[in-house]
Amino acid sequence: MHHMSGVDQGSRRHRLLVLGICCMSLLIVSLDNTVLNVALPAMRREFDASVSGMQWTIDAYTLVIASLLILAGSTADRVGRRKVFAVGLVLFTAGSVLCSLAPGLHWLIAFRMVQAVGGAMLNPVAMSIITNTFTDPKERARAIGVWGAVVGISMAAGPLIGGLLVDSVGWRSIFWVNLPVGLVALALTLRFVPESRSERPRRADPVGQLLVVVLLGGVTYAIIEAPSEGWSSPPILACALGAAAALGGLLFYESRRRDPLIDPRFFRSAPFSGATVIAVSTFASLSGFLFLTTLYLQEVRGLSALDAGLHMLPMAAMAFLCAPVSGRLVASHGPRPSLLVSGVAMGASGLLFAAFSAEASTPLMFTGYVLFGIGFGLVNAPITNTALSGMPRSQAGVAAAIASTSRQTGGALGVAVIGAVLAAGTSGGADFATATRPAWWIITGCAFLVLVVGAVTTGPWAHATALRTARELEPSASAPASPSSPPSPPPPASGQAPGPRMDGGLPPAPGPAPAG
Asked: Within 13 A of 63's CA, how many CA atoms are on the CB side?
């Protein structure tokens, strides 16, 4: 065991120190996402970038994280969690420095991908370290509550910090924030975090990993570049065919593998499939909403980056306040109430912009922001809860990891689709408000999907499919997780960190739930 510098490893003080180190990693990864949105117009002006260029600065990051989350968690279980966590901090910090020095848009996108490789190593592994450090269930639940609250802080503070830095120092400074935090977290990790591995690590699946990258990359590239290249152009058709082939290959190959990266049998559980659809829809809505809102406030209303951040504060505040409420609601009444209210609130918000041009009226616009914040705050806890519903405990970590990957995938697709609609509208000569109308209808449709899928996949029939799937996955499974009460995070030996995701998602626990 590593030198502890006088801090007893079993002591409460040491456990809190490890929690603090893990939360620092979560803070920089989460902040990076929310801070960047406010900086987009400034970057666009400096690099004279198109809408698709702005989409890639966000999607290069989310795609790499979505592709590597499951791999990072299982690699850490195999080779050592502290080792992978430390490498993640080095890569993320180095990537941040490179981003701040980027001489052009293509360099910035490449350096964002370096950041993302590091980011993918941080959150799933930090979650594993927390579950390994806090063995008492009550202490673990409280630790996860703190972890979730950090996401809320980053979501609320991101637009403000980003606005302040962009207006006072310039957009490059948003990446400097990560340097001191990353270096301090690295030093503390090497000194205080004990090494741990899984007793039953999952075997590597390089073929499955490659197919996931081809699938996600092909779909996103086709959507982002189609408005300028044309849907029938050879590169777009090649990407679409490559993605379709990768999907077919995944279904064929993974179903025949003993330790698959993504087990197709999971999707026979209606709650699990529902959680995947809800995660993709929710995060597509969120990323599209933030993308449109940021560009509108700064480019159409002419607000400064800081003013734009302040305008978005009601949304972040509601998400922060509603997340713990949702955690308690899921614990006492199951995931259905949170999902239904969330779908209605986000749908009503989208409808205000799509049908009533809410952006033209400040009171209506703020009502839309508040409603969206309420909906988004309520949806996170039930996503992970529904994904884990009925799963045997030995599979819970992998199930939570796939739900987290779905969030990232949704985020990437949201920016791709909404940006493509905006680019197609503006290139046709429409003004911003007219060009974004179809995009707001898409966001409304995603929210409606959350409502319908949430209603269908949380009833008795859905739970029966989850139990049937659990028996198939592990005939001698221990009691599966109940859909109405959130499971404790599974032990790290399950082969995956529970709930890894860039925005800090995790299995819901009594007490504060993740806010973003």
From this structure: 26
The pTM (predicted TM-score) of the whole model is 0.85
Neighbours of 163 (CB within 10 A): 25
SS3 of residue 103 by DSSP: coil
pLDDT at 9: 57
d(CA 466, CA 461): 9
Distances, alpha carbon 246 to alpha carbons 210, 243, 398, 417, in Å: 9, 5, 21, 20
CB 414 within 8 A of CB 510: no
Reading phi first (left if > 0) and then psi (alpha if -120 to 50, else beta), residue 76 is in: alpha
Tokens read off for 419: 């940006």
Query: CB 16: neighbour CB atoms within 10 A?
Result: 15
- The H or E element containing residue 114 is helix 105-133
Residue pLDDT, tens place only, 175-190: 998 999 999 999 999 9
- By C-alpha distance, which of 205, 261, 292 is closest to 405? 261
| Spatial distance between the Cα atoms of 232 and 224, rounded to a whole number of angstroms | 14
Closest CA to 381 of 449, 334, 327: 327
Calpha distance 443→358 (Å, rounded): 14
> How many residues belong to the chain?
516
Class of residue 257 by CB neighbours under 10 A (exposed 0-12, middle 13-18, buried 19+): middle
Q: Do 297 and 311 form a contact (C-beta atoms < 8 A)? A: yes
